[in-house]
Design a protein that fits this description.
The chain is mainly alpha-helical. The protein has 16 helices and no strands.
Length: 301
């Protein structure tokens, strides 16, 4: 224990951290950002439209999604602790700043992985068989920026697994519609992750980390982000046509398209001041709008 730790201020700070550890952990893994992916999982649940679905199954699915994301984010904070410490933008994160220990975060990761596996076992056999592959993607993503600029797409795949997993939970098989939705989520995620990565352009280049902005520069990175979002909309259109959805779905998809166009207009190579609005606010609205449109399509019509 250092002298500073022994001071009244140090003891008070330690006590505050101890009392707020749960809140600090939830903040560290950005638990509130579950709003990005969870609505697409719920949309897939209503799309599956099986007579055997129940509120209990929905509860199992939500629990699995929460534990899967918790495992992924806990491991990400653990794996990136050294990088986060060096990056001024992320140096205040709990593990990097020493507010949460690596041991604590490792324990949280293991616990979340076990609870996710338990949920998969609780759902059905196929979900349990696919559990190791899902965890491999969810945890493995954290290392991809060390060797490939495709890390944004791999993050997208990690989030895009949720609609496919929901379909497996409801029907016990994998079909085309959830794959289309999963791909749409993957390109949507990759698009906004490229925007977010623009903030670390200088740091990533200096540290030898891989990202599309660091590899191609900001102007071309933002063009690729727009391409990813265009592909996401195209996939949602394809899904809607194949499923023969009606008015509510198309209103929702059209609104999502408008929101993504607006998101892209907020960020320019020479002006990243509105990245947080583009990343946090608008993407949360996108997922909620799409979920609402699907629910209305399936429940009202």
């Amino acid at each position: 224990m250092t002298i500073q730790d022994e001071s009244p201020g140090g003891l008070q700070k330690s006590e505050t951290r101890q009392q707020g550890r749960a809140g600090l952990f939830l903040e560290s893994i950005k638990f509130s950002h579950s709003i990005f992916a969870l609505p697409f999982a719920l949309a897939a649940f209503f799309m599956a439209d099986s007579e055997e679905t129940s509120w209990l199954l929905l509860a199992k699915i939500v629990a699995a999604c929460v534990f899967a994301r918790t495992a992924a984010m806990s491991f990400n904070r653990l794996a990136d602790a050294r990088i986060d410490t060096l990056n001024p933008r992320t140096s205040s994160r709990a593990v990097a700043a020493g507010d949460l220990s690596r041991t604590f975060m490792a324990g949280a990761t293991i616990t979340a992985c076990c609870l996710f596996a338990l949920c998969c076992w609780w759902i059905n056999d196929l979900a349990l068989y696919l559990c190791p592959a899902a965890l491999t993607v969810l945890l493995g993503y954290s290392y991809t920026k060390r060797f490939t600029a495709l890390c944004h797409l791999l993050l997208g795949v990690a989030l895009g697994l949720s609609p496919v997993g929901v379909w497996v939970a409801v029907h016990g098989e994998i079909e085309l519609l959830p794959i289309l939705l999963g791909l749409a989520v993957a390109f949507w995620t990759a698009g906004f992750d490229v925007i977010y990565a623009c903030q670390d352009y200088d740091f990533d280049r200096r540290e030898g980390l891989h990202s599309i902005p660091a590899r191609l520069g900001l102007p071309r990175a933002l063009l690729i982000s727009r391409l990813f979002h265009l592909l996401a909309i195209a996939l949602l259109v394809n899904l809607g046509l194949r499923a023969e959805y009606g008015t509510f779905y198309w209103i929702g998809t059209g609104t999502v398209a408008v929101l993504l166009v607006y998101e892209q207009s907020l960020v320019k190579p020479g002006d990243l001041s509105r990245v947080n609005l583009a990343f946090f606010t608008l993407n949360g609205i996108v997922s909620l709008v799409f979920m609402t449109s699907v629910i209305l399509e399936k429940v009202v019509l």
